Amino acid sequence: MYQQPPHPQQMPPQPGFGRVLLDASFNPMNWFLYFIKPVVVVNGQGRQVEWGQLPIDLPAGQHNIEVHFPYFGKPRGVARATIPVQPGQQQPVHYRAPANMLLSGAMGPTRPATPGMASSLAILGVVTLVLLISFLV
């Protein structure tokens, strides 16, 4: 089981533990995600959390982390990574929800781009153009 410290910058991890600082985010164009909480699964044990930064204290070693959000009873935007944790160190991990429910999310040591954003903007542009042309005709 993993532990969540109350104040990540004030309290160091326990001896033999390191800290994963998970930053879970989404593009504001996916406004409905404001109403859905992400799920973080660490080594097979999951729980719902808030969007934003989540400090997770873990014993030193390799840990499997998955982040997704529930949508109509199914996990969507799934992203997985194996994260090495060193004692006394903080490891940043960034999760980004996709722009489209059918795509996977992205996770890495730096903030990834929103998966599927270009295709979603292209579809939005085509729909807007079709509506504009039909309005003018």
UniProtKB/TrEMBL annotation:
Q: Which keywords describe this protein according to UniProt?
A: Membrane, Transmembrane, Transmembrane helix
On the tree of life, the source organism's domain of life is Bacteria
TM region positions = 117-136
Q: Output this protein's name.
A: PEGA domain-containing protein
